[in-house]
Amino acid sequence: MSDLQAALPPMSAPVKRSVTIGGHRTSVSLEDGFWSELKLIARRRGETAAALIARIDSRRPADVGLATALRLYVLADLRQILAARGPAD
Predict the structure, then answer these.
(1) Measured between alpha carbons, how far is 51 from 1 in angstroms, rounded to an integer?
(2) Among residues 4, 19, 30, 36, which is most buried (max CB within 10 A)?
(3) How far apart are CA 32 and CA 41, in angstroms?
(4) Inter-helix orientation angle 66-85/32-44, to 10°
(5) Phi, psi of 30, rounded to the nearest 5 degrees
(6) Which stretches make up the Ribbon-helix-helix domain (predicted)?
(7) Contacting residues for 60 by C-beta, under 8 A, at least 6 apart
(8) How far is residue 62's CA from residue 40's CA, in Å, rounded to a whole number?
(9) Is 61 exposed, middle or buried (0-12, 13-18, 19+ CB in 10 A)?
(10) Alpha-carbon distance 81 to 17, whole Å?
């Protein structure tokens, strides 16, 4: 097995879920890993996933799709956690 194959996480096709933002229903397609991380982030912050998604939506630029904004938010959160741990030796 190559290094690339060993580093790949389990993969799933995007899953479409409905969320309510500002009283309006919309659908967002994300892979299971991103949905799971969003729920964990929300729980860690003492809010619902719907509230977190609404907050991210309200702060994203108009030219950035909601799914992209959610993925980038999860990435930034994970990077922040890793940076707080310091260098891995």
Answers:
(1) 42
(2) 30
(3) 14
(4) 60
(5) -140, 155
(6) 14-77
(7) 66, 69
(8) 26
(9) exposed
(10) 27
Relative to beta strand 24-30, strand 15-21 is antiparallel
Q: Which residues contact 69 (CB under 8 A, 6 or more apart)?
A: 56, 57, 60
CA atoms within 13 A on the CB side of 61: 4
Q: Which of 47, 58, 67 is nearest to 22 (CA)?
A: 58
Structural tokens at position 4: 């690339």
Cβ-proximal residues to 78 (8 Å cutoff; 6+ apart), any chain: 37
**12: which 2 tokens?**
């799933």
- Contacting residues for 55 by C-beta, under 8 A, at least 6 apart: none
More confident residue, 5 or 28: 28
